[in-house]
Amino acid sequence: MSQLKLAILLGMTVALGPLALDAYLPAFPDIALDLGISHHDVGLTLSIYVGALGLAQLVGGPLSDRYGRQVVLMSGLLIFTLAALMVAQTSNLNDMLIWRLLQGIGGAFCAVSVPAIVRDQCHGIEAARLFGLIGLVMFIAPAAAPSLGALMLAIGDWSSIYLMLAGYAVFLAIVLRLTLFKQLPANQRVRTPLPTLITNYALVLRHKVTMRFIGLQALCFSAMLVFVTNASFIYQEWFGLSNSLFSLLFAANIVAMASLNIFNRYLLRHFEAVTILRVSVVLQFIALLVLVALAWGGAPYWIIAPSIVIAVGFMGSIVPNNMANALEFFPHLGGTAAALLGATQFTVAGGISAFSTTLSSASLLPIVLLMAACSLGATLLAIGAPTAVRKETARLAAIEGTPSH
């Protein structure tokens, strides 16, 4: 299968998670009114989804190593679809939280399969380029999601957004079954023995360089998710913007990420992925410091919004390079390494974003301060990241080559 076709299919798959995160953001006020809850309580449905999206990967990753990517991915799509249909029927916050939790589990099984498939296919700079191409395809979903959600609100109520999500998951299952899984080579279906499904995590946890990259991604993603969780509050409540203007400003973040993603593919021809990663993280931190200063000074939305776009945009070069480096060391345990990366990323970010909802009722400043704090931690980890990984990769591959794997 060509790299472009593989990237399109995997990009469509990994886009399911952001689509379920972003499509219902414009509906926050409607959901709050319909369920009789506060705007910030609706944010809990996002946080619990993100938390489940992370923790369930710890189960889905090893299972994909044992039973194959197809079984886990298709099961995830089925769970996601059923949960989305149930969310559309809910009438209270508790039920919505339960079904969003289940939807997150389904999304996790899908999300963890994608980096594992990439690691099955390639490594190093080639993997970074493929991750970048997947990200470029994936960015279409979060860019269009708020506008799509606003469109669904214009022709129906907020439940129609979840019916749309269920329909997309069914469409995705059909496309993947008829294309991707008919063409994957046989050696991608790694059969990890059952007794090692849990103990294999020790290999990843003991690897300090991998854990550095995992921590870095968790903190960068946390900074972005704090914004996503509070985007409706920032633009619709704090600045009083309309649904359509909110959707346009939110989409601008995705355009920035896509642009940095494209530029990153050019940079990979001349620099190591870890070098680009380090510079991107530092620049993101500087951008967030500027944002803090602007929020402190009470700047208007037309100045705040571009600052947010620049800061969030750096995720376009951070994520593909970081994922390639984090998974580089475990060629035979792609599912397990991807699961630990995804679980840490989403659970840490979910917890921090849930905490951020308690801050947003006060002002904009606490939100951007929290984003900057996360970015500071990521910067400290990036500065100490190794500049070369090839020798360490060979050493880990030799360890993984034991009979237990």
From TrEMBL:
Residues 1-390 form the Major facilitator superfamily (MFS) profile domain. It is a multi-pass membrane protein. The keyword Transmembrane helix applies. It is found in: Cell inner membrane; Cell membrane. InterPro entries: Efflux_drug-R_Bcr/CmlA, MFS, MFS_dom, MFS_trans_sf. Coiled coil: none annotated. Gene3D superfamilies: Multidrug resistance protein D. The chain crosses the membrane at residues 46-64, 71-91, 97-118, 130-155, 161-181, 213-235, 241-263, 275-296, 302-321, 333-355, 367-389. Keywords: Cell inner membrane, Cell membrane, Membrane, Transmembrane, Transmembrane helix, Transport. Belongs to the major facilitator superfamily. Bcr/CmlA family. NCBIfam families: efflux_Bcr_CflA. This is Bcr/CflA family efflux transporter. It comes from Oceanisphaera pacifica.
